[in-house]
């Protein structure tokens, strides 16, 4: 492929004609990178590093980019595993996002049956190994296209750590790293091929830490004040609060520490809360109520409480101009097919999904375009308020598979996941070429973005001015 492209350039130079954008085929170029895509995805899957601890995963992506001539900005936004890689001159500036953090508390091999790996306490159950590898491939192919066609423009790959509860991109937005970006292209693994205009929920999280007085639970209970009582009282009040919230509200919590022995009144306990809603202002109002429950719980149990905000994301700002253009690219490409061996593996996965299972041949199709609300949250939301952003999702997982499941973790380490990743890289590459060469599309997308944000828009981070919680997964 590289030899053919070089020959095309030479012939064009001999003929005295400028090299056209059509002289380089991004789809074929992505196919030529298939080995690298799969190798990088599998290596990051094997490592399964948690948020802000992804030193090897981040380092691998940077090494691949440096080998292709990208300049690397290290330690972006004062985060050791965040980086910005760039190639090109002039404009437009088009950014791609690359995630690479794994999820704790879940573990799975690439088997089609439940098969945890001994000693491994995390897995890529959201497919961020694929996310990083697919964006890497797209960035390299876009760079090749810019170079071989002589088109002015810059391509950037943003290495964005800790999406899972760490809001890595929010710190990068807050630091101004997207201020000169014209457009951002994003993707995510999924169980269907879709460019639907899908927004997300705003969310904020915090760890509420209660402190009491320890004592012998049987011999001197009157001397103790249980920090766990504070946690449980807070949880009870929050669960009553659920009845009095609007329909888009989502509240989740886990008790991360509650004591070590029943006969010791715990002097420390901690509960980790998430609050989500489609409207940022509603999240802030709910948050005030959440803090009040913590204060009331401490008062009623004779304990003290403090809390630390861990992460916070704004909802995604949909740009339909861009989403419809991406939908057209996805339809142009079509889906993909499983091999006979992959089909057999996928059938076994599908059998574990129960009523959620869908036909396997959906991977060959493109889902209809629609505007929809997604009930997850992502720090891509903050990026979408800083720069017009377009997203795509491909069927890296067996149709019907939920994110954050052992089935999605298995597929993210399997060849079926790599196939969906290649499709995503092709769609992102074609979308970038369209943006570089279509000024009317750029103008329309920017006009929609400005209208959606409004003339008086001022960015507000749900994190406030806190530093990145680099140890939140330790």
TrEMBL record:
SUPFAM superfamilies: Bacterial exopeptidase dimerisation domain, Zn-dependent exopeptidases
Entry superkingdom: Bacteria
Alphabetical list of InterPro entries matching this protein: Amidohydrolase, Aminobenzoyl-glu_utiliz_pB, Bact_exopeptidase_dim_dom, Peptidase_M20, Peptidase_M20/M20A_hydrolases, Peptidase_M20_dimer
Alphabetized Pfam families for the sequence: M20_dimer, Peptidase_M20
A GO CC annotation given for this chain: cytoplasm
One of the protein's GO biological processes: folic acid catabolic process
Gene Ontology terms for molecular function: dipeptidase activity; para-aminobenzoyl-glutamate hydrolase activity
Stretches assigned to the Peptidase M20 dimerisation domain: 205-295
Chain segments carrying region Disordered: 447-474
Signal peptide (UniProt feature, chain positions): 1-23
Keywords annotated in UniProt: Hydrolase, Signal
Biased composition (Basic and acidic residues): 464-474
Protein's recorded name: Amidohydrolase
């Amino acid at each position: 492929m590289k030899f053919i492209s070089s020959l095309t350039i030479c012939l064009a130079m001999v003929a005295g004609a400028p090299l056209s954008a059509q002289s380089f085929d991004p789809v074929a170029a992505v196919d030529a990178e298939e080995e690298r895509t799969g190798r990088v995805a599998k290596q990051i899957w094997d490592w399964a590093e948690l948020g802000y601890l992804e030193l090897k995963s981040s380092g691998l992506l940077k090494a691949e980019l440096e080998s292709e001539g990208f300049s690397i900005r290290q330690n972006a936004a004062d985060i050791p595993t965040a980086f910005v890689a760039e190639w090109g001159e002039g404009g437009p500036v088009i950014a791609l996002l690359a995630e690479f953090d794994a999820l704790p508390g879940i573990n799975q091999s690439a088997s089609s049956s439940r098969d945890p790996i001994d000693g491994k306490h995390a897995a890529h159950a959201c497919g961020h190994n694929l996310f990083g590898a697919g964006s890497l491939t797209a960035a390299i192919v876009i760079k090749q296209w810019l170079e071989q066609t002589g088109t002015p423009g810059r391509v950037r790959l943003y290495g964005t750590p800790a999406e899972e509860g760490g809001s890595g991109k929010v710190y990068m937005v807050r630091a101004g790293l997207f201020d000169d970006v014209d457009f951002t292209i994003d993707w995510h693994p999924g169980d269907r091929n879709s460019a639907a205009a899908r927004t997300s929920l705003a969310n904020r999280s915090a760890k509420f830490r209660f402190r009491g007085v320890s004592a012998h639970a049987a011999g001197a209970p009157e001397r103790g004040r249980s920090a766990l009582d504070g946690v449980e009282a807070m949880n009870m009040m929050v669960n009553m609060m659920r009845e009095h919230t609007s329909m888009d509200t989502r509240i989740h919590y886990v008790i991360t520490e509650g004591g070590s022995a029943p006969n010791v009144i715990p002097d420390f306990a901690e509960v980790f809360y998430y609050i989500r809603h489609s409207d940022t202002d509603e999240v802030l109002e709910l948050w005030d109520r959440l803090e009040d429950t913590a204060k009331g719980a401490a008062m009623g149990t004779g304990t003290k409480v403090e809390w630390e905000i861990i992460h916070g994301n704004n909802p995604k700002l949909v740009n339909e101009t861009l989403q419809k253009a991406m939908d057209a690219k996805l339809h142009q490409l079509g889906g993909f097919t499983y091999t006979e061996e992959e089909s057999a593996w996928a059938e076994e996965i599908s059998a574990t999904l129960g009523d959620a299972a869908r036909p396997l041949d959906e991977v060959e199709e493109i889902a209809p375009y629609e505007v929809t609300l997604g009930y997850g949250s992502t720090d891509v939301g903050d990026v979408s308020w800083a720069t017009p952003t377009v997203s795509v999702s491909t069927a890296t997982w067996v149709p019907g598979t939920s994110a954050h499941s052992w089935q999605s973790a298995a597929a993210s380490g399997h060849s079926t996941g790599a196939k969906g990743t290649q499709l995503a890289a092709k769609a992102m590459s074609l979308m970038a070429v369209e943006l570089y060469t279509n000024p009317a599309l750029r103008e329309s997308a920017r006009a929609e973005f400005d209208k959606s944000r409004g003339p008086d828009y001022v960015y507000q981070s749900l994190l406030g001015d806190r530093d990145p919680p680099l140890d939140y997964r330790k």
